[in-house]
Structures are given as C-alpha cells and as structure tokens.
Design goal:
heterodimer, A: 0% strand, B: alpha/beta, Rossmann fold, 2 domains, four-stranded antiparallel β-sheet, 10 strands, 24% strand
Chain lengths: 245, 261
C-alpha cells in the first residue's frame, strides 16, 4: 500500500469515530478504563525513565561547564530547560510510544484476527468508535499528565544528583532553573504532549484495527505502529518547535 | 426468512461467489455446505454485511434489501441477528457473564437484575449453569461455542448465523452443539443458517441444504434427498469417505432391490 492509501484510510478511520454512541455511559466507562490502563499503567516506566534522564542531563551539563567564569546555577537552568522543552515531552513520549503503541496495536490486531471486531459489528455496535475513540481520548488526556510527572521527577532527580555528586548545590540548581524560566515552555511542552498522545493512540489504533492475517501480522502491526509513531513524533517535534518557538 | 438473489463477489480478479440465489426459511436449520474454499464463509459474511458484495440482493423478512438500506438501518437490523463465529470470538478480557450481558448493556435499559436473569436463562439454555465467572481462556472449545451461542441468542434474535460451529470439536461435543442449534431454532422459531462441512451436522439438522462448489450453487434440498441425489460434485463431497460411500451404495442397492420386487 502506498503512503496515500494509508493516509486516506487513516483519515476515514478518524472520520468514522464521529458517530453518536450507542450508549454514552458505556463509552464513559471505557474511556475511564483506558485512562487507567494507559495513564496509571505507565507511571512505573515514566518514573524510572524520568529519574535517569534528569540525573544524566545534570551530570553531563556539569561535565561540559568546567570554567569558573560561568555560574553553577547555569547547570540548573540548562538541565531544567532541556527537560521541560525536550526530554520530558519527547524522549519520555518516545518510550511511551513503544509501550502504549504496541499494546493498542496488538490488542486491536488480536481482536481483528479472532473475529471479535466482527462480533461487535454483528451486534450492531460501531466497532471503530467503541474501540478506538476511548483509546484516543484517554491517551490524549493522560500523556500530558505523564509528561508533567516526568518533568517534575526529572528536575528533582537532576537536583539531587547534582547535590550528591558535588556538581551543583540544590540551591544553585533551583536558582538557575527559576531564573531562566519562561512560562510558555510549560505550555509548549503540554501542546507537544497532547499532539504526541493523539499520534500514538490514533496511529497504533489504525495499524491494529486494519490487521489482516494471523498472529504474525499482529506482531508486524505492532512493530509498524511503534516505528511510525516514533517517526511522526520526531517529525511533529520539529514542526511544533518551528511553529511555536 | 432470508432471500439471496444473484449474489456475486470477487476478490481482485478471483470471483468467489457466482450468482448465488437461495431462500433460507424461518424456523428451519438452513445449512450451507461445500469444500474448503467453496465460498461458504464469504457467502455467510456477505449475508450479514461483514463483506461487501459486488452485486445482488439480500432480502430480510420479505421487505428489506440489506444492501440498499443505510448504515443506521443496517445497525437496527443487526440487532435482530445473532452470530456464532468459527473461533467463538468471545471477548478475552471479559468473563462469560460479561460476554453474554454485553449486548444487553449496550442496547437495552434493563435493570441489573433483569439483565442477570436473562444471562442466567441463556447460560442455562446452553447447559452452562456455573460458568458465569470463568474467563474464555479457562473454557474448553465446546464451552466457548456454547457461550458464543448464549451471547448470540441473548437479544432474542430473529436470525442466527453459525460459522462452522463444529470446527475443532470432537464428534460427541459436535452433536451436542448441533442439537443445541436445532433446539434453539425450533424453540424460538428463528431463521438459522449454519455453515459446515461436517456430514453428521448435515444429516442431523439440515432442514434445507445448499451445496456450493467453486462459488456456485450446485445443489439444494432437504437432508433426506441427499442420499438419492445424482449431482456428481455433491456425491463426491458427501461420500468422499469409505464409510459414507458404503452407506450410499447399500442405500442404492436397497432401492433398486425394492424396485425389482
């Protein structure tokens, strides 16, 4: 299939989500369930990744700023800005793309090949809306929250690692982080996180929903979903930076 | 009643269904038989609208052409359809009870108690009284099929479709499933269409049998007429095994002896 085939089918899938739900309460329950699975289920990996990201970025920044002419608080400034602008919303989300993207694609792919999606259609349920819409809404809402958690944890881990290693004191780190703080950076990070949340869930759902064949194709769909999500995240990372900064 | 008129379906250059016409009567077990690749599943999935066809008509209840109604109309009609899939298609993440109650949750405003009563009634009907809390991965193949039937009948459908209900089951369990399908058809007076290549099923429950060969209708009739059918492809298919061939030969000999007397 060509790029245009995929893109056309992806747009049609998104269009098919805009239908009146058979029963709104069921959809709300499904959204809540997906928010728990996608959001709460990803807190563990976000905590681990964020702690190490913050620590590494502080240590590496301190390693490069050896001159006594530059204040130590600059380390805090560079680390915090890098974390909020790029590491929390992009690197963390790239890792989430692997976890959430493969889960969504393989879940829907398995449902497709085992005829569970056909069973929903036969019952009269709008299968794409019931299965895909809650995932997109949950992911678009929960990934920004995970990014906020990631940013806080990364900055705190960076601050503590700076203190323990003697690279920069806690006070200097926080002074730098606050001194060069631009409020729009937080908005920018949230805009990126929301966009990436939508990309991860919609693209993975697309690959899962249209899986054809057997178990092997489910694996292929999951792999393709993760790869395409990662590429699109990087592409939109650049586009958003170019447009908004 | 479901009437299929001149149904054609192609996948690329390959034509799978070639002008199929048939009438599936209400309150009867209508069987679609044929070798693997003859188009049985494509025909069944076309009738329920899971596979779009190239041309033809699918008329439900003498008045509704399924292919000409809009999406909303199709959804309404589908609420009258129950389907048992080849692999049962149970929702893995839901227990037996939640699988069966799913259509009720989605389309009715029944109270919890009413829904549970209906679920238990359906599970009892398929002889699965104490399986409510089990998950699909804890069930045997036959149990999965029975849960699939319970889910298919929970909304009191007018039409029941069963795609290879006996695949992967032992002969004894197959007979149980066949009997269940037949009993449910008689009890609720629904139009049942069963897709099978199991000869036991044909002989046990086939009120009307449609034989497909390479996407074409080659024979139709009652199961009792199969023994005396002269259609070569049908005979090659039905009496492929030695056991059935010998029965056929004995039957032919008995009939000719009776004629000679």
């Amino acid at each position: 299939m060509t790029f245009f085939n995929h893109f056309g089918r992806y747009v049609l899938l998104l269009k098919s989500l805009l239908v009146r739900p058979e029963k709104t309460s069921i959809y709300w329950k499904e959204i809540a369930r997906q928010m728990v699975e996608i959001g709460v289920g990803s807190v563990g990996i976000v905590v681990i990744v964020s702690c190490f990201l913050g620590a590494v970025v502080t240590v590496q920044t301190a390693y490069q700023l050896t001159t006594p002419l530059i204040s130590k608080s600059i380390i805090g400034s560079i680390a915090a800005n890098s974390i909020i602008l790029e590491l929390a919303p992009t690197v963390t989300v790239l890792i989430l793309a692997g976890k959430i993207g493969s889960k969504i694609a393989s879940e829907l792919g398995t449902m497709r090949i085992s005829e569970q999606i056909d069973a929903l259609e036969i019952m009269g349920v709008h299968s794409s809306a019931y299965l895909v819409l809650p995932k997109i809404l949950a992911s678009t809402l929960m990934i920004p929250l995970l990014v906020i958690i990631s940013a806080f944890l990364s900055i705190y881990s960076g601050m503590w690692v700076g203190e323990f290693t003697g690279a920069v004191s806690k006070e200097d780190f926080m002074t730098g982080a606050i001194q060069y703080w631009i409020p729009f950076m937080a908005n920018f990070a949230l805009i990126k996180a929301t966009t990436f949340g939508f990309i991860i869930s919609s693209v993975s759902s697309y690959y899962g929903y249209y899986t054809e064949g057997g178990a092997l194709e489910v694996g292929r769909s999951a792999t393709r979903a993760v790869v395409v999500c990662c590429v699109l995240i990087l592409l939109f990372d650049y586009i958003l930076a170019q447009l908004l900064l | 009643m479901i009437e299929v008129q001149d149904l054609n379906k192609s996948f690329g250059a390959k034509q799978i269904l070639k002008g199929i016409s048939a009438t599936f009567e209400a309150g009867k077990c209508n069987l679609i038989i044929g070798a693997s690749g003859s188009g049985k599943t494509v025909l069944m999935k076309s009738i329920v609208g899971l596979i779009p066809v190239n041309s033809g008509h699918i008329i439900y209840n003498n008045d509704t052409d399924f292919l000409e109604i809009e999406d909303s109309g199709r959804k309404e009609l589908r609420k009258q359809i129950g389907m048992l899939f080849q692999g049962s298609a149970l929702f893995d993440s839901l227990s037996v009870e939640k699988n069966v109650v799913f259509p009720l949750n989605m389309f009715t405003n029944m109270t919890y108690k009413e829904k549970m009563n209906r679920v238990n009634e359906c599970l009892e009907r398929v002889n699965l009284k104490d399986a409510n809390k089990l998950y699909p991965n804890e069930l045997s193949g036959g149990m999965k099929k029975r849960v699939g039937i319970a889910r298919a009948i929970v909304m009191n459908p007018k039409y029941l479709f069963c795609d290879e209900p006996n695949s992967g089951l032992d002969p004894q369990t197959s007979i149980v499933i066949d009997k269940l399908i037949k009993d449910i058809t008689d009890e609720y007076k629904i139009t049942t269409i069963v897709n099978t290549h199991d000869m036991n099923s044909v002989m046990e429950i086939g009120d009307y049998v449609l034989f497909l060969y390479k996407g074409e209708k080659y024979w139709e009739g009652h199961r009792d007429e199969i023994m005396n059918a002269t259609n070569q492809q049908l005979n090659d298919f039905i009496f492929a095994g030695k056991f059935f061939r010998e029965i056929k030969e004995q039957n032919t000999k008995r009939l000719s002896d009776e004629k000679n007397k």
